[in-house]
Amino acid sequence: MISKQVASAAEAVADIPDGASIMIGGFGEAGSPIELIHALIDQGAKNLTVISNNTGSGEVGLAALLQARRVTKVICSFPKTANSTVFPELYNEGFTALELVPQGTLAERIRAGGAGIPAFYTPAAVGTPLGEEKETRVLGGREYLLEFGLTADFALVKGQQADTFGNTLYNKTARNFGPIMAMAGATTIVQAANVVAAGEIDPETVVTPGIFVDRVVHVVDPLVESKLIAAGVSYP
Amino acid sequence: MISKQVASAAEAVADIPDGASIMIGGFGEAGSPIELIHALIDQGAKNLTVISNNTGSGEVGLAALLQARRVTKVICSFPKTANSTVFPELYNEGFTALELVPQGTLAERIRAGGAGIPAFYTPAAVGTPLGEEKETRVLGGREYLLEFGLTADFALVKGQQADTFGNTLYNKTARNFGPIMAMAGATTIVQAANVVAAGEIDPETVVTPGIFVDRVVHVVDPLVESKLIAAGVSYP
Amino acid sequence: MTDGAQGWTREQMAQRLAQDIADGSYVNLGIGIPELIANHVPEGRTFIYHTENGLLGMGPAPDEGDEDPELVNAGKKYVTAIDGAAFFHHADSFAMIRGGHLDLSVLGAMQVSQHGDLANWSTGKPGAIPGVGGAMDLVAGVKQVFVITQHCTKAGEPKLVEQCAYPLTGKAVVDRIYTNLAVIEVTADGFACIERAPGVAFDTVAAATGAPLIDRCGAAS
Amino acid sequence: MTDGAQGWTREQMAQRLAQDIADGSYVNLGIGIPELIANHVPEGRTFIYHTENGLLGMGPAPDEGDEDPELVNAGKKYVTAIDGAAFFHHADSFAMIRGGHLDLSVLGAMQVSQHGDLANWSTGKPGAIPGVGGAMDLVAGVKQVFVITQHCTKAGEPKLVEQCAYPLTGKAVVDRIYTNLAVIEVTADGFACIERAPGVAFDTVAAATGAPLIDRCGAAS
């Protein structure tokens, strides 16, 4: 009997080594896998490259991982979230490097990485500073940039419901980067508020097929980032 | 009030001109929009380029469109379906040209076309006759082919359920090329056995968001290709 | 130089822009003044709002107490989903954008050049943390790009210029500009004023514009 | 030259191959002999079958009367979906294949070269209608590619050859070959026989192979 369920967030992230590249789902707090991130802070891996749309808020979740000085590079589209003071300090100090990628290019690079497409052309960022030093090509009379697929050693994703095969459903706009990061992570870890037996999810409604998921962790009542911040919490 | 519903298959295909490129969903009979194809036969447009995985079976649906000598080029991965005698004759006669594309490359080209990606690299078909005369490039030590996004003037898609905004659900493996062809058709026409008001489909389960769909036709009890063939039917 | 109080208010600018959106359009509204457009949909028309974080059919802000931190817009504000909405992942969302499926993107601007170049993401100052989000994808992919902005900066400098001094979001991407003073089209010949706010003279608009301005207000009416 | 009756039967070939598939593997089975593998899953293991037309968790053929023409496999035969299955579209399906998410692809062959080149889609005869389907994507993307085939053609010609005469499906893509006579690994040094069917001598296998054959049967046992 196949079951990808592991007992805890700690167990799920236990083998993430120093120097790993990690995709972390979420758009702001929506879809941010806080419990997995906190387990990763506890675990201690450092010198990480994090691929995520933002850089976290307050001093919990993704921001807390940065604040713990575990992340030496961030690949993201928008590091300037409200209440985001951690990343600017680390960036200005020179501790954490930034690769800024237009949001759609970031999404497509992740999807391409997961789909075995090593590179593709896109019109976004042509003629802008983010297109400088990139290879360009005119196709059908229009100029495009060559962009490369992006994969990661691990992907941390927040689902709403998952079954033991790893099939995953999401909640509203918390879906965002989850499904494509699940594709692009060599090892994909899903935390879900609801874990059910294979067969409990209608196969027509599956968003992330289980083949993209390696480990499922049941996180019953996930923390809400904005509530933690409002309460003045910092992690750890 | 937005409604994309049109009264009939005939109305839905009325403006398809001679020389149009048309994506037609389906993998064999599963997902083949027979009623839309038959309406297109009745309508009379000719010199069409058809992009579809197969070339139809018997003398109904896609095969009947070919048999009516309306299609001068087919782009597909597998033109040799069981009971497929129509295409081989037209091909050997020189009436219908064939561009043979590996199935995954075909799917990705369609998805790229719909996603505004003009070209991408893929490992499929490298070193084979289907890779000859294609541009190649070594990336990360591996050789890839450059393939181009594919769009079409029209896409004909069979859904199971659609709402008046065009949001579409599919039935089992009849989903196949439907969602990506809906993205890649300049005008996408969906036939669905069940048409409902906007709001009747759970937004979490939508497979094809309505933005990709231009027209919805209610086809209550769609024909089943294999049953028609077993009954010896030819269309018209 | 003009002051911000002259001509249309922000709400009037949004109302004016909304008149130029066809019924049934799929629209992405940027953060700031663009968001006001949702309050001014003309009678008898329906717009479907796309937010790049994965929702088509975005509705208004929820009632207090109904906020869901997992139902937000691109500005991370709480929103709702209308009947007929759909959720999808980021790659699908930007497939809509890049693939030309959206009818209109409305964005704010720091500068717009007479060639339609847009600068709206970075001052380019050293040490500032840059953040681009989805703006470069929107301007590269959406069928029409409208800018809605005050005609001049708070310091009174023109935002409509010959060449953008700030780093670009996209080259030759802006179709029209809606300001407090006027509606301005980006043409092959440069900026063309096609409509002025009540009581605003053409010379006032021209003086507040940092590039040559063609007067086509007559033609547009 | 060998006759088809020698060595393992088709069912035994499938059974032998199935022993080399790890528990929990995601497997794509080609049309023909590969399909028999589903009948021989070793006790205590579960394989999840992928069919490229959009189903993960393909189950056995339905009972008579339960066939659904919209639930088929890549060979267009009626199938079922197991508990825990998922449906998806073609681009997602080939993302699984091309992206290296499947553990194993089992295919039939017309010819396999000593370098692992596979020919299984076309005789290259003029006038024949070519059809490639998903084979080129499978061999380019799946982690391991096993071929299952009779050792020789019906005419007695070797299918394992120095160079494929037929048009290729992929270059250097085959990892192992399971025939009626033997299990053969494609190594950097060419074909290596790692196991023989009961009663089949190494010389018999070598004689039926159109390229040099290394004997590693001892090492494998």
Can you summarize the main beta sheet of chain C? 10 strands, mixed
In angstroms, what is the radius of gyration of chain A?
18 Å
Q: What's the mean pLDDT score of chain C? A: 94
The top level CATH class name of chain C: Alpha Beta
Structurally, how many domains make up the residues of chain A?
Answer: 1
Shape of chain C: globular
Number of domains of chain C: 1
Largest beta sheet of chain C: what is the strand line-up? 4-3-2-1-5-8-10-11-12-13
Terminus-to-terminus distance of chain C: 26 Å
As residue ranges, the low-confidence spans of chain A are: none
CATH topology of chain A: Glutaconate Coenzyme A-transferase
Query: Which sequence of SSEs, written as H and E, runs from N to C of chain A?
Result: EHEHEHEHEHEEEEEHEEH
Helix content of chain A: 10-25%
Name the CATH homologous superfamily of chain C. Glutaconate Coenzyme A-transferase
Oligomer: heterotetramer
* Annotation field: number of helices of chain A: 7
Total DSSP E strands of chain A: 12
What is the annotated CATH architecture of chain C?
3-Layer(aba) Sandwich
Gyration radius over CA of chain C: 17 Å
Query: What order do the SSEs of chain C take from the amino end to the carboxyl end, as H and E?
Result: HEEEEHEEEHEEEEEHEH
Shape of chain A: globular
Task: Summarize this entry quickly.
The complex is a heterotetramer, with two copies of chain A (236 residues) and two copies of chain C (221 residues). Chain A is an alpha/beta fold. In chain A, 24% of the residues lie in helices and 28% in strands.
